[in-house]
Amino acid sequence: PDLDLAVTDPNGNKVNVKKKKSGGGVMDKDSRSACKGGETIENIYWVKDPPKGTYQVNVNYYSTCGAPKDNPPQIEAMVGISYNGQFFGPFKKTLTFKENAALVQFVLE
């Protein structure tokens, strides 16, 4: 399936497949766009000095990529956060088709 990552920073800037650059945040690629390719990893990162405050990380189950839409499979989304050489996660959630779910909220101090 095609899952889409989105992050909202403390200033309300949203980075996602429709807006790949915002408020210093950058999305590297839209994996599985149009259900092509096997890569399933998307990254959103700040080139320098991410703003302090609360971030919201969402994942949208965008497309089944050909699986039957009358009984679409659930899929597990997994998100990890890396900051200053430390890794947090993975944070996981099982999604149903067309669900746009908050996976994790965190505060950068």
Q: Oligomer, anyone?
A: single chain
What percent strand?
over 45%
Q: Helical content, roughly?
A: under 10%
- Rounded mean pLDDT is 94
H-E string: EEEEEEEEE
SS class? mainly beta
Low-confidence stretches: none
**Silhouette:** globular
Number of strands: 9
The first-to-last residue Cα distance is: 35 Å
Instruction: Please count the helical segments.
Output: 0
Q: Radius of gyration, Cα only, in angstroms?
A: 14 Å
> Biggest β-sheet: count, sense, barrel?
4 strands, antiparallel
Structural commentary:
It is built from no helices and 9 strands. The strands form 3 sheets. The chain has a 4-stranded antiparallel beta sheet, with no helix packed on it. 0% of the residues lie in helices and 51% in strands.
Task: Lay out the secondary structure.
Layout: E1 2-8, E2 14-15, E3 21-22, E4 25-27, E5 44-46, E6 53-63, E7 75-83, E8 86-95, E9 100-108
Antiparallel strand pairs: 1-2, 1-6, 3-4, 4-5, 6-9, 7-8
Task: Briefly say what this structure is.
This protein has no helices and nine strands.
Question: Which labels suit this protein?
Answer:
mainly beta; 3-stranded antiparallel sheet; globular
